[in-house]
Amino acid sequence: MKDRRLDILYMNETKRKGIDRVIKRGSFDTYWSSIDQSQRGCRGVGFVISERFSECVSSYECVSPRLLWLGVKIELTRIFIVGVYPPDKSKPLEERKEF
């Protein structure tokens, strides 16, 4: 991210287990939507935010292991960023419809 001068990076298939959370790692903040500890590691979405933009994040919500959103405010501009990881055709039809 530093080499490419990225401030926001979205990731899917993070396979994180446990509690949805925000973690500070070096000069980056990470926002994760995870699955229950008892489930097999799959799904999961996340954002990595640069130190420069971390103070601009005004809100976030982990809607599901496949959907996470961030509210970002830069001066007078508000931005709503959605990270979505829909189930593919290999998943059961019921799961795809529910999504």
Summarize, please:
InterPro entries: Endo/exonu/phosph_ase_sf. This protein is mainly beta and 99 residues long.
Number of domains: 1
Largest sheet: 4 strands, antiparallel
| Radius of gyration computed on alpha carbons | 14 Å
Count the helices. How many? 2
Report the helical percentage: 10-25%
Write the H/E string, N to C: EEEEHEEEH
Beta strand count? 7
Instruction: Trace the largest sheet across and list its strands.
Output: 1-4-3-2
**General shape:** globular
Which residues form runs of ≥5 with pLDDT under 50?
Answer: none
From the N-terminal CA to the C-terminal CA, the straight-line distance is 30 Å
| Secondary structure category | mainly beta
Average pLDDT over all residues:
83
Question: How large is the share of residues in beta strands?
Answer: over 45%
Protein name: Craniofacial development protein 2
Organism: Eumeta variegata (Bagworm moth)
InterPro entries: Endo/exonu/phosph_ase_sf
Textual characterization of the structure:
The structure is a single chain. The protein is mainly beta and 99 residues long. It has one domain. 10% of the residues lie in helices and 46% in strands. The strands form 2 sheets. Strands 1-4-3-2 form a 4-stranded antiparallel sheet. Strands 5-6-7 form a 3-stranded antiparallel sheet, with no helix packed on it. The radius of gyration is 14 Å and the shape is globular. The mean pLDDT is 83. This is Craniofacial development protein 2.
